[in-house]
Each structure stands twice: as structure tokens, then as C-alpha cells.
Amino acid sequence: MTNPLVQMRGIRMDGRSDEAWSPIIKGVDLTLNRGEVLGLIGESGAGKSTLGLAAMGFTRDGVRISEGAVSFDGIDLLAASAEQKRQLLGKRIAYVAQSAAASFNPAHTLLDQHAEAPVQHGVMSRAEAEADGMELYRKLRLPNPDEIGFRYPHQVSGGQLQRAMTAMAMSCRPDLIIFDEPTTALDVTTQIEVLAAIRNIVEEFGTAAIYITHDLAVVAQMADRIKVLLKGEEVEEAETREMLSAPKQDYTKSLWAVREFQRPAKPAPAVDATPVISVQGITAAYGKMDVLHDVSFDIHAGRTVAVVGESGSGKSTTARCITGLLPPRLGRIELDGAELPLDYRKRSKDQLRQVQMIYQMADTALNPRQSIGDIIARPVEFYMGLKGRAKRDRVADLLEQIELPADQYYDRLPSELSGGQKQRVGIARALAAEPKFIICDEVTSALDQLVAEGILRLLARLQDELGLSYMFITHDLATVKSIADEVVVMKDGAVVEQGPKADMFRPPHHPYTDLLLSSVPEMDPDWLSDLLRERGADNVGDAATARMD
Amino acid sequence: MPPVLKIILQRLALGLLTLFIVSIVIFTAVNMLPGDFAQAILGQSATPEAIAAIRRDLGLDQPPVTRYFVWLGDMLQGNLGVSYAQLNFQSNMGGANLKTVADQIAPRFGNTMFLAGVTAAIAVPFAVTLGVLAALYRNSVFDKAVNISTLTSISSPEFFLAYILILFLAVLNPILPAISNVYQGIAFQDRLMATLLPALTLTLVVTAHMMRMTRAAIINLLASPYIEMARLKGVSPLRVIVKHALPNALAPIINVVALNLAYLITGVVVVEVVFVYPGIGQLFVDAVKNRDIPVVQACCLIFAGAYILLNLAADVLSILTNPRLRHPK
């Protein structure tokens, strides 16, 4: 027990871009003892995953370890041959990926893939591996543990797949598991059951783990120690409780501070005010199946309505109905008290102009072949009819509004911008139409916390200056807390509760709202244990959701 | 109705429509060629009376639309008709033993299918194996050598490949016959020997396409997270390719294989000529030369039918390789 399980010394790693190597990890040490869980935290691009994979002696294509040493249980992984490393991978070191849906092979059943490592490494026979797989599925509280293994990945839900992947990592009872953002792609209610399952099984087998995430509250539940990375360098490392109560470095403190951004409450709108957008009893269907049921809410001038719910709850479908992309089957939509045609093709140019949209993935929402200036100029010309000099000036104004100096950014391509800057361009494009109402569809969920906060502040400022109304679609309740005036909670295509934000965050809640709220991880390292105790063993995730139906 | 069955029925109906359109296009195209059967058979010095007599005999004096519908009517009753050459021969020389188009085509078609079958049996496993190995050892010397040699063979004219093979396998080392002497009632073994050289030639022609698609389809998947997962489970490199990448790469590979098989049935005239192989291609070319419309039409329908059926088979197989469609939620 004296020797650490993993020891990384002075690791430097390079990534190749455009034929040149540039450093992505700049001299990091990492020590992990047997049975210990180390949290690795940082923004995207901090090098967390790269470092985690390097602990397995593995580098992705286009990445290399230029300096340093990695040893696993006394074995020098950098000197080991590919064949020696292959014998360790899967057997003594396992990996759990971020997206279980993408990391399970679609062509084989879960159990097939589960049994592969133990059979290939000669740890168990096929029959033993399958029986053991079912046992692990049971331990991880998967439904129908004896049958679920015979399903294909597309037949199993995301949260269940993530647990099945944890089971797969456990198949050879490894000494070390690297968890690479295993719950990032999941809804909050699903996240809890996966976190609980991972924590229990890691404790039960005494497995050491490196837990990579960008979510502090999550890592607080899982890790004994936390290491903070920034741009390939270590910021600080400490025991979890110490780190949470007394972070030493400014950067770490700034990570904590994000959650404190909150807009002052606005006075309630006048009772007889006409809402900017009024959604009245819309029911919409994809094909023959209704996916929205009688959804109604109002959005008043200068206010933000957050629409929250899990994936599949109908948030984005509602947005598609309002924009007219998916004409609802029943119901009515009003803009400033006047009825909007349900099909966007029947709306006038002015009606189209009033409703704009900002998308989740700025990457795919911007044409990669057009310059930033051209992207924003398009709606300026289309809706406002500006040309030449006037158009250019207007685009420059818009760029100033989103805090990107026009002289530097006008001619750049989207690929030359960071994620947050791209999202700002998306905002400028929406503003170019001078709309009254903007739909923000998960605009911050692909961004790091600090960058996301910048976007939220920008949106808040623009609202104050221009009197915009927002419909803010999100699954992140922290975002709701910081920006919303009113909240609409959706589940299974219907509104379960709506009202002013202050009421929503104050009990009593609708039981589903309660489940959502209580599922948001908190910084307290005892939060998960307390919550599980409170809810009782049978009342986690699936079971709790099912009870609600 | 199971979705797969529905797709098959839809495609078959579309296939029939395609056949109908093909028959119109071919009939029109052949009629637009200068001259007709009477002129082609009698040559330039023919008297107008002789030409008119033959035309009357064969019904060529009827307007084209009438002729097309007479042919179509016969066709729908399963009667492919009698070739003009046969009819003309009979009316001049007498005799009751009239060979129908079906009689003419049947043995030729059988030979063509045999050649295509032998070629496919060699080429498909060969190409897929090469593709898998090239993907496994991508960017190695082996990969480059395979790419260069298959590209060279697909870029060379077929007759050139055929003569090279004849030179090495029939002239310098007389292992195989240079001429494919296939006759009625030939023993299977002799038939196989006679077919082997043309089959090898065709293998060289079709391998590159299939091999490169196999390689590309597999390499395309190697960046997928589930391939990385397999590597991180310590699965051996060959197993990563064969067990994890190949099953997901089958759809594009199957489609390319189907296209090449269709080519083997419809496009091998040059190889048939070089080896004097009695396939359907030679018959088809002669029929076009003589403006012998019943034979041309029958051959075209067979070619079109082969394309339609093979593409249908490829689509169905592609669907069956997709677990999402095989095992719905």
C-alpha cells in the first residue's frame, strides 16, 4: 500500500494542428493511491481528458507525450510495448466515456460488448462473463438485469447505457477506472442514479478512479481529492472538503463564484398588459403522434421566461411551433395580441422579423464558409433593406453590442473564434433583425461556466437596453435561477407548473418540480448521500419519475 | 406488414415501372439508328423491292408505335418473340424449326451468369479481405502496394489485362486454355477451367473498386468513440477492425459489391470477345448491329432486371445489417 497506483511525473503533451505541435499539457504531476478517487476538473480545453487518457498510457491521434513519466503499479507505461499496454487495458485499467450512446458499438448487444474484455484477456469464460455481467447490472440497479444485456444500445436509455458502461468497465475488476465526464450528457434526474451507482460500485470493489468533469458540484460528491486544471497546467490540488471550503487560487474561487450571478427581480407586468407572445393551447404532432399537449403560456415585454424540463419534454418542439417551423395541430399563437399564422410560410416578413432564434450549437448554426460580417449582414439586408455603407455600419454596431470589436472580427471566419465568441455572433445575428422576441435554445449548455456566465450577462444587458423578451429553453436550473423572471416546467410534452421564479423556487412545488430542483447537485460533499437517504433507496431517478406518472 | 417486406414490394413495383421505361427508351433508340434490319442484312446493293419484301415479311412496314405495342402485348404473355434473323431465314429457306428469342438467349445467359458467379466467388472475398488488411495496416507499404496495384489494374483496358493473363497463364505457362470453349453439356470441371481466365481478368477489373470502398468505409469509422472504446478495452487491432468496424461499414460495401456484380452481368463484352466466350454480351452486340429489335429488347430487359434485382438485394442486405432496423425499440 506504500506505492501509489498511478504516478505521473512532469507530464508534457503536445497536440498537432496544421503540421505544428503545440503544448496542451504543460508539466503536470499526478499521484493516485489504491482505492482513491481523484477528481480532475477544469474548463473544456484544460486538458482533463488528455491527461486522463495519458494515465492509461493512451494518446489520441494527433497527440503525443513529449516529456515525463507515467507508471502504473510500478510498470513504466511510456516504455511498455503496445502489446504490453493492450494486456493492461480493459483488464487492470478501464475507461468510461462521456457519451455511452456513442461509445457502445451499435452492431452488438450490451452483454456481447460486456463479455469481450474478460474473454479476450482470458479472465473468464464467455458464460462466466455473461453471468457476472448480469450480476453487475443488478448491482448497478439496471431494470431487468437478466434481459437488458441482450438488447442493442439503441434500445436502452442514456442513463441506463451509462450504467451498463460502468458495468463493462468493472467486468475484469480493474484496479483503476477513468471516468471521463460520465454524466455530462444526462438530465439531472438521471444523473443522480448514475452518480449513486458509480459511487457504490467503486466503493464496493475498492477501485481507484480518476473522475473527470467540469461540474464542481458533481466532483464534490465523487472525489476524495480534487485537482484543478487550467490550460494544461495545475492550478491547485486539495482534499475535497478543503478545496470546497477554502480554495486558495483566484481561478478556483472564480469557478465557485459563477453560481452566484443573479439578476435583480423585475416588477410583475401590469395585469391588463398585452403579452408579446401568447401561446394558447397548442398541441403538436410529429407524424401521427402528439408530442405537445395543450401548452399555454404568455411572455411579456422585457421579460425572460425560462422553459425547463428533461430532454424529450417538448421544450424545443414548443420553440419550433412558435417559430412556425412545426405548425401545431391545434391552438393559437399571438404576437402583440394579433394572431400569428401557424405556418411560417404564411407569415409576413415583419412577423418573421419579430421572432428570432439563437441555437445551442453555435458551431453548426454558423456557416463555416462565411465571414462573421457576412453572417450578420444577411439579416440586416434581408429584413432592414440596408446596403453598402449603411449595412456595414450597422453590422459594426451590432458587433460592438456583443463586445467584439468590429475592426478585428468583421472579416474572420467562425472557425477562428472560440465557442463563446461564436455564440455571441449568433446573438448578433438574431439582434440584426431588431426583433421583439428571441428564443434562446440551450444557448449556454455547450459552454464552460465562466463563458456561459458572460453570455448570460450579455443577454441580460441587451434585454435592459433594447426591451427584448426571451424564451429561455434550458435544462440547467442554475441558469434559470440566474436569468429567469418566470418559469414554465414541462414534462412529457405538457406544462406541469408555471409561475414567477420566486414562487417556483419556494415550496410547495409540484412533485415533478420538486424532483428536478432537488436533483441539482450542490457543492456540499454530503449532498448526494443526504439526498439518497432522504429519498430512500427505491426513490431514485427512474423510480421517482415513474411514481410521478 | 414487416417494414422490410414493404420496402421490397415497393422496390419491385418501381422495378417493373423501370423495365417498362427501359423498353420504350431502347425501342426508340434502336429505331432512331440509321437503317433497319432489312438494310442491314441485304447490304448497300440491295434493290428497294427486296428491302420492301423483307420489311413486309417482318412487319417492319408498320408504324413504330404499332410495332412497339405488338411486341409489348407478346411480352406480357411471356412471349419474347422471334428474332428477325430467324424469321427472315425461315421465310427464305423454309423449315418449321423456329428458334425463339428465349431459346437463343437462355444458354448464353446461363454462360454469362456462370462467368459472373465464378468471378464474384473469387473477387468479392479477395477484395474485402484486401480492404480489411489495407485498413488494418493503413499508410504502410502493404497498404500503398495494394492501392497502387489495384488502381493500375482498374485503369488498364480490359483487353490488355486479358492478353497479359493469356501471355502468362496460357502461352508461357500453359496452365489454362486461352480460348473459352464452352459448349452444351460440358462437364462442370471443364467449364470451370474454360471460365477461369476470363474470370481472373474480370477479377482484376472489379477488385479495386470494392477493395477501396471496404478500406475507406472502415477507416471512416476508426475515429468513432466506440472504436476508441474497443481499443481501451485492450481488444487486438485485427479484432477492432473485423468485429467493431466491419459490421458497421457493411452497408456501403454491399452497395459497391452489387454495382460490380451488375457490371459483371451486363458489361463484359470485351472480355467475351477476347476469350471467345459465348456469353450474352456478344449476342447483344450482334443484335444491335443487325437492328434485330426483339433480341435487343430482350437483352436490355435482362440487363435492367439484373441491375434492379441486385440493387434491391443490396438495399435489403444493408437494412438487415442495421440493428436499429432489425431490432426496433
Automatic annotation (TrEMBL), chain A:
Location, primary (coarse class): membrane
UniProt-listed Gene3D superfamilies: P-loop containing nucleotide triphosphate hydrolases
InterPro entries registered for this protein in UniProt: AAA+_ATPase, ABC_Ni/Peptide_Import, ABC_transporter-like_ATP-bd, ABC_transporter-like_CS, Oligopep_ABC_C, P-loop_NTPase
- Give the ABC transporter domain ranges: 6-256, 277-517
Spell out the PROSITE patterns in the cross-references.
ABC_TRANSPORTER_1, ABC_TRANSPORTER_2
User: Would you name any one GO CC term?
Assistant: plasma membrane
Which cell locations does it reside in?
Cell inner membrane
What's in the keyword line of the UniProt record? ATP-binding, Cell inner membrane, Cell membrane, Hydrolase, Membrane, Nucleotide-binding, Translocase, Transport
Q: What's a Gene Ontology MF term here?
A: ATP hydrolysis activity
Give the enzyme's EC designation.
3.6.3.-
Which GO biological process categories is it annotated with?
peptide transport
* Keyword Calcium part of the UniProt annotation: no
Q: Which regions span the lipid bilayer?
A: none
Bilayer disposition of the protein: Peripheral membrane protein
The family this protein is said to belong to: Belongs to the ABC transporter superfamily.
Q: What is this protein called?
A: Glutathione import ATP-binding protein GsiA
Which species expresses this protein natively?
A: Tropicibacter naphthalenivorans
Q: Which gene encodes it?
A: gsiA_5
TrEMBL record, chain B:
| Membrane topology (UniProt) | Multi-pass membrane protein
InterPro entries documented for this protein: BPD_transp_1_N, MetI-like, MetI-like_sf
Coarsely, its chief localization is: membrane
Signal recorded as keyword:
no
Record carries keyword Cell membrane:
yes
Entries under Pfam families matching the protein: BPD_transp_1, BPD_transp_1_N
Q: Where are the transmembrane segments?
A: 12-33, 113-137, 158-180, 192-211, 249-275, 295-320
Q: Which domain of life is it from?
A: Bacteria
Q: Where in the cell is it found?
A: Cell membrane
Residues in domain ABC transmembrane type-1? 109-314
Q: Which UniProt keywords apply?
A: Cell membrane, Membrane, Transmembrane, Transmembrane helix, Transport
Note the Gene3D superfamilies from the entry: MetI-like
GO cellular component terms?
plasma membrane
- Example of a GO MF term: dipeptide transmembrane transporter activity
Signal peptide as annotated in the record:
none
Q: Which family does it belong to?
A: Belongs to the binding-protein-dependent transport system permease family.
List the protein's name. Glutathione transport system permease protein GsiC
Per the UniProt record, the source organism is Tropicibacter naphthalenivorans
Tell me the name of the encoding gene.
gsiC_3
